[in-house]
Amino acid sequence: MRQLARWVGRWEALLVVLLVASVIFGDLTSPHYMTGFNFSTMTSDIMERAIMALPMTLIIIAAEIDLSVASVLGLSSCVLGLAWLHHVPFALCLVLALLTGLVCGWFNGFLVTWLALPSLVVTLGTLALYRGLASVVLGEQSVSSFPTSFTNFGFNTIPGTLIPWPFVVFAVLAVIFIVVLHFSRYGREIYAIGNNKEAALFSAVQVNRIKLVLFIVSGVLSALAGIIFTARFSSSRADNATGFELDVIAAVLLGGVNIFGGRGSLVGVILSLFIIASIRDSLSLIDVADEIQSIVVGSLLILSVLGPNLVRRLRAARTRPLVPRPVARAEPGD
Amino acid sequence: MASRSRSLERPRPVAVGAGRIVSRVSRMRELGLLVALLAIVVVVSIQAPRFLTLGNLREILLSVAILAIVGVGQTLVILTRNVDLSVGSMAGLSAFLGADMFKHHLTTSVPVVLAVGCLIGVALGAFNGLLVTVGQVPSIVATLGTLYAFRGLDYWIAGGGQVSAYDVPASYLNLATAQVLGVPVLVLFALVIVAIFSYLLRFSRTGRQLYAIGSNPEAAQMMGIRSDLLVFGTFVICGLLSGFAGVLWGSRYGSVNASVGTGFELQDIAAVVVGGVNIFGGAGTIVGSVLGAIVLGTIEDALTILKLSAFWLQAIYGAAILAAVTVDALITRRMQRALFARRQR
Questions:
Q1: Which numeric CATH code is attached to B65-332?
Q2: Which of A141, A280, B78, B288 pairs as cysteine with B275 (C-beta 3.0–4.6 A)?
Q3: Does this complex have an ipTM over 0.85?
């Protein structure tokens, strides 16, 4: 019984309730919501964000942040398009796109680790830099004449089912990330870095190397997301996926990951990804514009931090001791 | 605490002479910016003599003025170790609502619209401030959320509508074009705001307390500084100035839709960071961030004059932010080493 109570008190349990609520909300808003086809497109629609959320979770747990993911997506999509426009063999185009992501991620990681710069500023800078380079690379044109086998990968589902192909990619990656974060030494080390960087350093954790690898992985997976985005919409444009970083970060924080690092789980993040997807989908079904949907996502982002804070405050107020707790106070003559 | 403890890796220089490092770095920064500005001006005006004409300089000043006004608010917020990512959305909302008033009543007087714009900014800024101080939401999360929420609100209210230059009275458009002794009124507004806040930040007790909060939030608390109140205040002022700038934006360009000011936060933070304000608070001046705004505004104008693609603009903003923080880090590291070596002797 006590175990049940503890489970119910967990953030993930709350997310399950929220997910059910959002599905009920969807069903109430539109008769087209509760269909297999809708769930299939809904899933397909968030795959890029879901893939980018995996490394983002690890990065935020390690007390860093990567604001540049959507720009890396855009830049690698443009590189893919440009290479294809210049008759580069398609397989090589894909490799070039992934390499772009690798270089972008490495550059972020290099500035954060080698120069010890704050990732918040670095990736705010590269958010603009990579997006700017994307429009320099492709200008205002868009490339759309991709091979059909490639675009089919974006549009089609596994034959006989409603499972979109990109979901397979995400599922495989999600399993790998869950194993690494929750069942491996590296995962423990990532939590250690986020909890106390100095202590981790003194415990022989290679803090900088792990961070560098995390940023590189984030870059490569953002490029992969760029490839999937290009396939799904059959177009590379400089403004592809602008603003996706909000959804990614909102999903990670709503998933229960602490913005200051050290806490969170991938299960929570995956749950919250589908909550956001479901809400956006049901709003789209009743013709609410993307920008207005962002009110909901932005509010969820704030509430995911504000809610627990207020609960903690209320609890603290209820259990406040009669005598105020001793606070660290400067002694006279100190 | 309304602090961002993500900043734990900020190198804490040895106590002796630490203040001197900060002041020396910032002085070098301002000098460096002036040199960079001079270099840009010389190179561009050789390439295109049109660059140095009075009309073009006025054009630069107009865009710099709007950027600088918002930059003042952002500087105050960043000094306290917070950040406000929602400035562009606040400016956009006040720009649209302000201009929309004319559409309904063409006879609305301009000061009323300015006041309404400021009030909208104050309300939005207060909302941010409450989230950060009472709600204890880290400012980066809170304002990232409101960046999208305020913008969504803007789209919701506008509903795809637009206010064009024909819908607004000439007196509103004059705000940007009217001149006093050859200086555009808009620029005078910016000058007054910069002067007032520069003075307060440097010489008033509250101003110094903002620096104290940013340098060491715990110590500031123990000294009895009412951090939460002051942080709330900086968010309100940032909202106020963003709202004000939004109305000015509308008067400068004439036509306003729901997308006005999108991405403005990036320019704004770039200007402040390039101007030498430490993103972790506690160091920097308003004059510095105004210089940053001037440099960025000049680059933007130079791109158009040299007929370079506007696509480069965003890339340059990004590169400018990176260059500024990198140079800072390298200088600080070198000075620390020198200081350490001196202490060893």
A1: 1.10.3470
A2: B288
A3: no
